[in-house]
Amino acid sequence: MNTIYFFSYLVILSMKAIAIFLLFIGILLIIQGYYSNKLVCKKDKVVVKYVPRSVYEDQMNPSESLQTFYKGMFEDIILR
Questions:
Q1: Within a domain: residue 53?
Q2: If we measure between CA atoms, which residue out of 64, 80, 63, 60 comes closest to residue 72?
């Protein structure tokens, strides 16, 4: 009877060792993948685009109001 318990204990112990070993290998592979990706991916250059001052001023202070600008779109609509 003692030999059966001993063998079952060995099986459980070996399964725990295998699980810990696979966990360790998995962690190593994740770390290796992270660093290989970090070395390959370089940061993009920052591209600065600007809006000319005249366009900005036209948007902020339009010479004609929106009512006169969009008036032509709605003049031809006939309401019934």
A1: yes
A2: 64
DSSP secondary structure of 4-56: HHHHHHHHHHHHHHHHHHHHHHHHHHHHHHHHHHHHH-PPPPPPP----HHHH
Q: Token pair for residue 67?
A: 């009512």
Give residue 23's domain range.
2-74
* Structural domain contains residue 13: yes
For 37-50, what is each residue's pLDDT tens digit? 877 767 778 888 87
Model-level pTM? 0.44
Give me the pLDDT at residue 62, please: 62
Split into its structural domains, the chain has a count of 1
